[in-house]
Amino acid sequence: MEILHICVLVGSFILLLFIGVPISFSIGIATISTMLLSIDAGPSLTTVAQRMATGLDSFALLAIPFFILAGQLMNRGGIARRLIDFAKVLVGMFPGGLAFVNIMAAMLFGSISGSAVASSAAIGGFMVPMMKKEGYDLNYSAAVNITAATTGLIIPPSNILIVYSLASGGVSIGALFLAGYLPGICIGLFLMVVAGIIAYRKKYPVAMKVKLTDGILRFLDALPSLFLIILVVGGIVAGFFTATEASAIAVLYTFILSFLIYREVKWKELPKVLLDSASTTAIVLLLIGVSMGMSWVISYENIPQNVSETLIAISNSRIVVLLIINVFLLMLGTFMDITPAVLIFTPIFLPVMIQMGINPIHFGIIIVLNLCIGLCTPPVGTVLFVGCGVAGISITKVIKPLLPFFFAMLVALLLVTFIPEITMFLPRLFGYG
Question: Which residues does 427 contact at the CB level (< 8 Å), separation at least 6?
Answer without folding.
Answer: 175, 178, 179, 361, 433
